[in-house]
């Protein structure tokens, strides 16, 4: 397939051997991604990218930055697709993640994309970062949960969201998914940003400030367990604030893409009880005009070969057919819908 210059400039091609190296580098550099299984460090155990196949459809898969989760996880998924689906060859793109990925789909600069469901919801409805609706994409299915984790030292006086008033709180970088979520959650609890001393740190920076006593609490959207929170807990016990009660009900009523999530006790040092919070979902999206049979195979392979994907990147273990439709608010692609109907899900 001819890839135009605009598309080609965004492309990072992942071979089976290259993914193995990138996964190790990305995980250490990010400091906030999931831990990699020992098997993923061994190139001989990686799914091998089969390369361009004669007559295969060439698709681009928009993911995220090389130091985050989306890019290496996308590489692991793409390798399994390339192994298992003869009619398809997928090349992974490194991008600015969810907002950019929705725009790439809208401009037909990629065929597949990974994004937080809340951002896709905004894109489809022309809200937030999107001045007009993007209607030419469809949902394929949930990949893994992106969990809201509001962290504070356990020895602080902050025990609930209401206790954040007047405190030094990082709500995430301006315009980020974390910042949007923080504002939505606070609003559901009747708390204004002006009532906080707001910092707009990345969570890596916020974690350092929490360890050093220069911040009271921080919002984050991370997988569970999160390496950066584990790092904080090496120097001080942590408390994860619960998202419960009437505020939770208001949040889900106003923003239906949030779903309940429980962080098990002892996930982090000092966290002795289960914590109820909410999650959004990292979801696979596809252009509406992709053939039904190809998207059917993409969906089937992703859910039925999750163990193989997890060999490439450990968070692949969290791919779950039972949660495939959780929090999805945009229409399904007909190929994905066909697969779910076969499974008696829709």
TrEMBL record:
Organism for this UniProt entry: Effusibacillus lacus
Q: One Pfam family this chain carries? A: NMT1_3
What's the protein called, per UniProt?
A: C4-dicarboxylate ABC transporter substrate-binding protein
The record's InterPro entries line, in alphabetical order, gives:
TRAP_TAXI
Q: Give the matching SUPFAM superfamilies.
A: Periplasmic binding protein-like II
Q: Which residues form the signal peptide?
A: 1-29
Q: Which UniProt keywords apply?
A: Signal
């Amino acid at each position: 397939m001819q890839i135009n210059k605009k598309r080609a400039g965004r492309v990072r091609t992942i071979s089976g051997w290259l993914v193995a190296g990138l996964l190790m580098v990305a995980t250490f550099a990010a400091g906030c991604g999931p831990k990699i299984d020992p098997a993923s460090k061994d190139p001989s155990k990686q799914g091998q990218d089969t390369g361009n196949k004669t007559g295969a459809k060439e698709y681009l898969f928009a993911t995220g930055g090389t130091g985050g989760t989306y890019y290496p996880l996308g590489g692991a998924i793409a390798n399994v697709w390339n192994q298992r689906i003869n009619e398809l060859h997928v090349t992974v793109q490194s991008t600015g993640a969810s907002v950019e990925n929705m725009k790439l789909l809208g401009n037909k600069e990629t065929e597949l994309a990974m994004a937080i469901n809340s951002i896709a919801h905004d894109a489809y409805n022309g809200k937030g970062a999107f001045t007009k609706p993007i209607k030419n994409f469809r949902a394929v299915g949930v990949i893994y949960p992106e969990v809201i984790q509001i962290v504070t030292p356990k020895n602080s006086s902050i025990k609930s969201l209401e206790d954040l008033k007047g405190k030094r709180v990082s709500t995430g970088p301006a315009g980020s998914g974390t910042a949007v979520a923080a504002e939505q959650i606070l609003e559901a609890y009747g708390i204004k940003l002006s009532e906080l001393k707001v910092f707009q740190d990345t969570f890596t920076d916020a974690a350092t400030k929490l360890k050093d006593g220069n911040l009271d609490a921080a919002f984050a959207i991370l997988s569970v367990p999160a390496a950066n929170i584990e790092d904080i807990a090496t120097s001080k016990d942590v408390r994860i604030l619960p998202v419960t009660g009437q505020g939770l009900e208001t949040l889900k009523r106003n923003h239906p893409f949030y779903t309940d999530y429980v962080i098990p006790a002892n996930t982090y040092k000092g966290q002795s009880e289960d914590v109820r919070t909410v999650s959004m979902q990292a979801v696979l999206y596809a252009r509406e005009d992709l053939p039904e049979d190809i998207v059917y195979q993409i969906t089937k392979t992703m859910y039925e070969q999750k163990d193989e994907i997890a060999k490439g990147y450990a968070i692949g273990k969290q791919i779950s057919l039972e949660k495939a439709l959780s929090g999805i608010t945009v229409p399904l692609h007909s190929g994905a819908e066909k697969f779910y109907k076969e499974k008696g899900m829709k």
